[in-house]
Amino acid sequence: xxxxxxxxxxxxxxxxxxxxxxxxxxxxxxxxxxxxxxxxxxxxxxxxxxxxxxxxxxxxxxxxxxxxxxxxxxxxxxxxxxxxxxxxxxxxxxxxxxxxxxxxxxxxxxxxxxxxxxxxxxxxxxxxxxxxxxxxxxxxxxxxxxxxxxxxxxxxxxxxxxxxxxxxxxxxxxxxxxxxxxxxxxxxxxxxxxxxxxxxxxxxxxxxxxxxxxxxx
Length: 217
Ligand code: AMP
Fold this sequence. Notes:
CATH class of the domain at 5-121 and 184-216: Alpha Beta
Bound molecules: adenosine monophosphate
Distance between the termini: 19 Å
CATH architecture of the domain at 5-121 and 184-216: 3-Layer(aba) Sandwich
Strand order of the largest sheet: 2-3-1-4-8
């Protein structure tokens, strides 16, 4: 039997979690579970979860823990998670981290847990998010200056339309950063205290960060 692996990637919005998580999950052949993506999918299909989450997301605030935890427990109970999964954008509060610990202790006591933190300054975050564009079709993340599309407004991988997330607007980003410092930084300390945290310099180019991440597992 394969021992399950659970990978958590922490970091501020725009730290590179999505970019690293997509690659790492593909290499490891485990599902990439982004709670932000799950909320956006729910919103697109106008489910009760999506409708509830919208006001929080638009304001750059966190969706209440009960909603996030219900959505996440349903997702990780699916069959494709039996050998493990990678979490991106979760946990974002200490109660979420505690709930995950309780679940792992109950459901997967032998799982290998890897927690990474991508460290990036607030100045870099603001610059990265201002230029961030997402493909409507395949979800690829590009940047107007750092990874400019070959054809303006079109995804390099699939030609889909690139758009800017509503919550990437500068005034919402400021609020998201505040929320990150107040509510999510304590999660970094939580895993540090447990002795399982590995911090990486997320200011470097994505290939260099990825090589280090892979080496640490
Ligand atoms: P992201 O795509 O990870 O930046 O998430 C976008 C938005 O979804 C966040 O600003 C929150 O409003 C919400 N969200 C995503 N993950 C969580 C979480 N673990 N806890 C609370 N809210 C979340």
